[in-house]
Amino acid sequence: MVKRYSFGDVFQTDSIPVIPEAQTGAMPYMDVCESEMSLTYQMDPEDIVYGLGENVRGINKRGWIYESKCSDESKHLEDRRSLYAAHNFIVVDGRETFGLFIDYPGILTFDVGYTELSTLRITASDWNLDVYVIEGESAVEIIRTFRKLIGRSYIAPLWAFGNGQSRWGYVNAQDVRDVVRNHRENGIPLDMVYLDIDYMERFKDFTVNKERFPDFAEFVQEMKDQHIRLVPIIDAAVKEEKGYSVYDEGIEKGYFCTGADGKPFVGAVWPGRSLFTDMLNKEARDWFGDQYKVLLDQGIEGFWNDMNEPSIFYAEDRLADALASIADMRDGDQNLDLDAFTKFKNLVLDLSANPEDYKKFYHNVNGKRIRHDQVHNLYGYNMTRAAGEAFERLAPDKRILMFSRASCIGMHRYGGIWQGDNKSYWGHLLMNLKMMASLNMCGFLYTGADLGGFGSDTTEDLVMRWYALGIFTPLMRNHSEMGTRRQEVYRFTDLEGFKNIIGLRYKLLPYLYSEYMKAVLDDDLMFRPLAFDHPGDKRARTIEDQLYLGKELMIAPVYEQNARGRYVYLPERMKMLRFTRDGGMEETVLEKGDHYVEVPLSDVVFFLREGRLIPLSGGGQCVDDVDFENLAVVSFGENAEYEYYHDDGLSKDYENPVNRRVIRA
Amino acid sequence: MVKRYSFGDVFQTDSIPVIPEAQTGAMPYMDVCESEMSLTYQMDPEDIVYGLGENVRGINKRGWIYESKCSDESKHLEDRRSLYAAHNFIVVDGRETFGLFIDYPGILTFDVGYTELSTLRITASDWNLDVYVIEGESAVEIIRTFRKLIGRSYIAPLWAFGNGQSRWGYVNAQDVRDVVRNHRENGIPLDMVYLDIDYMERFKDFTVNKERFPDFAEFVQEMKDQHIRLVPIIDAAVKEEKGYSVYDEGIEKGYFCTGADGKPFVGAVWPGRSLFTDMLNKEARDWFGDQYKVLLDQGIEGFWNDMNEPSIFYAEDRLADALASIADMRDGDQNLDLDAFTKFKNLVLDLSANPEDYKKFYHNVNGKRIRHDQVHNLYGYNMTRAAGEAFERLAPDKRILMFSRASCIGMHRYGGIWQGDNKSYWGHLLMNLKMMASLNMCGFLYTGADLGGFGSDTTEDLVMRWYALGIFTPLMRNHSEMGTRRQEVYRFTDLEGFKNIIGLRYKLLPYLYSEYMKAVLDDDLMFRPLAFDHPGDKRARTIEDQLYLGKELMIAPVYEQNARGRYVYLPERMKMLRFTRDGGMEETVLEKGDHYVEVPLSDVVFFLREGRLIPLSGGGQCVDDVDFENLAVVSFGENAEYEYYHDDGLSKDYENPVNRRVIRA
User: Fold this and answer.
1) Cβ distance A58 to A438 under 8 Å?
2) Please, are residues A578 and A595 in contact by the beta-carbon 8 Å criterion?
3) Which of B326, B338, B563 is the closest to A326 by Cβ?
């Protein structure tokens, strides 16, 4: 059951497609304090707080303070309060069980037992917000009700479940060809190569550098002939450059965000001085969406939207001020002590993503000027919505791959997200796992993290262990930052190991795609904490490093360097499936309880629940190779059956009953 | 057995007091390549590589590349190659078992299977080095041989095993009084309050701010009357200020490092422009050591040496250049794209600890000018040696507390180290544990990490779990950075919980001090990986989150947020001791194997080995309170006995046989 409580003058975020009537009575569970703009709840020691989607720390969010403020935050460390998203949904599960969604476009704080261990306190920046209280029998039922409320999640094409390779640094067609050739020659399956900012003409959106990609459309086709899709990046900001049609047209039509003086606001991103399309202005949004056509027309079928928190390297006035202050220092006393040196450094360090700069520009929402910081968290959402709505117009019958860096709830209907610019840390492998569950709760199903880590230098063992998790995530992509160690799997020693692990992805594809589609269509979770299935099992409630995948599987990746295995808690009897480097599969039944399981570096181990089966294909070098009809099965127990979803993976006839059938052992 | 192999013109580091004759034959184990200045070894998949003291990552160092380069590195993340120390000792344990110590003052790289999983490769910056190959029956025997070679580790006074409280931000006597009063009133034991840089007169070494501490000697006594020792910080760099006696005298006598032009080299640290005492010049070192007298004379009995990598915020010429370049930008094109903006930011970001600046100054070693970068790793060592040697002259019969941030092997004879400016991360709690073992191997026994975390905001549960480890480490100190959340334990909710945990430290003191002293006197490890005691136990060889403490105990702290317990592997039958919040103790015998052990937040759980006992005191509010003679015992098994070491904790009659006696159950 969903109850909406409305306070003040609520901005229409469109996060929820059909808004229920507001309640008039007092809000249950939460102590509302309008003067402090807060909602408070006293937690029981055994309560778990789920949700908050893309954030650091655990599946249980207790013990930290989170700030919903979309941020270009490449340091996903324990002390970060915000990452790229604002996912304002939580479920308190324990003495009382209920869900809360705060429909609010500004900055919001969730103090989940940080200031005081047992106090949950949500604080808004102003008191104009809708609070949804969602009730149900259990956390999982509450989440389903919430997911129904926010509308069906974005559906990716089937080919987007293949293996993708990316790097900031594939600068021309030859680089891409080399990547593809190295995969194909080594028998490592591949379906996508991602193009980072290097493919553009001086970082101008919707352009392609002609020297680097002399005939882009032809090159797109050349790749498709090898069953490879190119997926280019699109940045939020538009380069200020006369003669560049997107800039000229945006200026002419007044589609960019404006400063207090009414003139277009200028910040800088990759190309230097740039403007920000007013994604909250429907006309401007439609216009920006239409720009994707230039790439669709060249055969592109997928995109990733980046820098859309929006990221601002500097605002032009702040840079000018900083340069002036520093220039003055040259003529003054250059003996800087702690305070003076800190002040000097901060002139530069505070240039990027300065909160004050987000107060300097305005949106035009139905003729009303709204200062950006008040609606900050809607920007990435509406950039991706621009694309998603345009795809409905431009290619209504076709699925286009789309995922974004920034997001808030609502955007889940238009695209997935990747988990941002993580690092090559073992800790980030575990964070990838945890976030899968939290993101699913918030409606983001097409998601995954940069395998091997985006920033910092990686190691072969980290990449291999990370793939052993990544083969289960809908978005499966190896991506890395310019200047870091190269990490395409063919650059390492144990090619056989990588082939086996990535090959397993393609054997699992029928099951993974089926589970993804059912989760989307049924407003369900693809990845779940163990506790959702075993609410009375105290141990299961604390497990943060294992997840259920569908009704059939439990995954428990190894995430520690030099480990030869790991502990696994089985809340019930399960069959352990071990896929070894020689392509073999071993099946071992394990009893309920604790187990130490050996997992050599190139093995993949996961667990099949009793009375269940999963289908397996024969694999392939690309999704087109995979036979989704003639399937083997692995089962545990008598009379196991599986509801298998499959469709053509490209069109949108999701509800056709022929897409679902039962498979028996 | 120790064999020395000598290459080139070796700088005398004094890391090893008595240098054995050099070998003439070929070096065993390692493939020596002079042209590449490297030593290489092909590792077996099952080999473990131990050592490297203060560094990130595991007890087993495989899978990363480490650089011995003392660095002011507050981000102890997985991708850091260096922290504050250069501990050039490793043990390869497996197919072949041997130790290696590289006696070398410059920058050295240990690629332990980073570039290629199975290759260990050590690379020097020039080919002037001594390589010690240490052989023995086992890793633990090799380490004992090495420890004997490098000389007896520094011995701290007994009172330094009490609980210490610190914060960058206790700015005056009243702040300190408040800290002490809050501990005493709440019954939380305390023995030391540390003074960070705020106590000094404008960050000038060996001064005390007269406004903040009007009569320092009297205040030191006031604290001592409450059984509290003040422990002030000493920085490496000396403020450039005419009329400041340390500066004036250093200049007059030529005791500071000089630039290429022979004039004193000026870098900046806390006070702004500063000079660096030439710690490698014996005369200058003696002079710097003598400066400690001014504080000893006021009743101070302990110090911590900081910023002695040495940390340099900026070199004056680089700052001037950066300011000039930035000033030019003001007049030029302020449209900075990715490249231009990165270049601009780096002008500022590259100011601090710039490797080129370490090539700009020189030491005077017996009349010979040596460029700093060639002997970089000796600086912190020789600063602490300056103090240690001075204490031998100034207070020969008394133990003075001394620990340092920077270090290399050799310094272990003059002081301990703290584990540097960590963060309030759960991951850093685990790193604290791992480093205890690695540091013990390298001779650093008086050590510990900043409990609760130095940088970033902490949480009550993190602080509590961290104390449950910290009560076992010789250096037990809660320290935090200015601007972070206050983290003195009395600021949190569960005072009873903290009282119980910190109280347990004082009950364990007889055992902990005894184990520390025996480890020092017998060149032994106080903290050991499990594998050292169970070389044939494959599981024990992979355990990275449990340690043996002495011959009696195994510790296994909880290091995950919201965990209610943890897995523990017992390589043999043990008795689990549980100390609960009510002051009670429970004893449970657990069989060899894997266990999931529940550990509520305020419990401390550890394990007693069979046939062993530990003594327990009745506790106390300070070390002076503790009765080290009338001891209870907890034992497991028949006929258990314990070799108990105790002395007066202040003087140096370590070898007196009355210090050791056998305690029986």
Assistant:
1) no
2) no
3) B326
Is residue B426 within 8 angstroms of chain A, CB to CB? Answer: yes
pLDDT digits (tens, 9 = 90+) for A436-476: 999 999 999 999 999 999 999 999 999 999 999 999 999 99
Q: Is A324 in Cβ contact with B330 (below 8 Å)?
A: yes
Quick one: average pLDDT of B210-233? 98
Q: Which of B77, B423, B596 sits opposite A594 (nearest CB)?
A: B596
A499-528 pLDDT, tens digit each: 999 999 999 999 999 999 999 999 999 999
Cβ-in-10-Å burial (0-12, 13-18, 19+) of B182 comes to middle
B539-545, long-range: CB within 8 Å, 24+ apart, which pairs?
B539/A596, B539/B569, B539/B571, B540/B569, B540/B571, B541/B46, B541/B48, B542/A562, B542/A563, B542/A564, B542/A565, B542/B60, B543/B569, B544/A560, B544/A562, B544/A563, B544/B58, B544/B59, B544/B60, B544/B434, B545/B430, B545/B433, B545/B434
Number of other residues whose CB lies within 10 A of the CB of residue B28: 12
Confidence of residue B665 (pLDDT cuts 50, 70, 90): confident
Residue numbers of A between 176 and 205 with CB closer than 8 Å to B: 202-203
- Mind listing the pLDDT tens digit for each residue in A557-589? 999 999 999 999 999 999 999 999 999 999 999
Test the B interface: residue of A80, A561, A591 with most B CBs within 10 Å: A561
CB-CB contact of A578 with A586 (8 Å):
yes
Instruction: Give CA separation, A61 vs A31, A85, A413, A535, A541, in Å.
Output: 20, 15, 25, 17, 13
- H helices of A471-536, in order, are 495-521
Mean pLDDT (whole number) for A231-237: 98
pLDDT over 90 (residue B71): yes
Q: CB-based burial of residue A441 (10 Å sphere; 0-12 exposed, 13-18 middle, 19+ buried)?
A: buried
The chain A residue lying nearest B57, using CA atoms, is A561
- Write out the E strands in B125-247: 129-134, 164-165, 192-195, 229-235, 237-239
Judged by a CB distance cut-off of 8 A, whether residue A339 touches chain B is: no
The answer to whether A79 contacts B313, with C-beta atoms less than 8 Å apart, is no
How far CA B215 is from CA of A486, B207, B256, B297, in Å, comes to 61, 12, 31, 13
Which chain B residues are within 8 Å of A43, Cβ to Cβ?
none
Q: How far is A492 from chain B (nearest CA, A)?
A: 8
Per-residue pLDDT, A334: 85
**Cα–Cα distance, B594 to B588 (Å, whole number):** 15
Question: Does the pLDDT value for residue A329 go beyond 90?
Answer: no
What pLDDT was estimated at residue B329? Answer: 86
Quick one: tokens of B86? 């250069």
B637-660, pLDDT tens digit by residue? 999 999 999 999 999 999 999 999
Which among A323, A423, A460 is the nearest to B117, CB-wise?
A: A460
Question: Which residues on adjacent β-strands are paired with residue A264?
Answer: A258
Question: For residue B319, what pLDDT band results from cuts at 50, 70 and 90?
Answer: very high
Q: What is the average pLDDT across A259-269?
A: 96
Rounded Cα distance, B426 and B561, in Å: 7
Q: Is A78 on the interface with B (CB under 8 A)?
A: yes
Which residues 490-549 of A are in CB contact (within 8 Å) with B?
493-494, 538-539, 542, 544
What is the per-residue pLDDT across A71-121, written as a single tens digit (0 to 9) for each? 999 999 999 999 999 999 999 999 999 999 999 999 999 999 999 999 999
Chain B residues within 8 A of A335 when measuring between CB atoms: 240, 268, 272-273
What b/e readout covers A91-116, taking b as 16+ CB neighbours within 10 angstroms? bbbeeebbbbbbbbbbbbbbbbbbee
Nearest partner of B256 among B281, B290, B273, B293, judged by Cα: B281
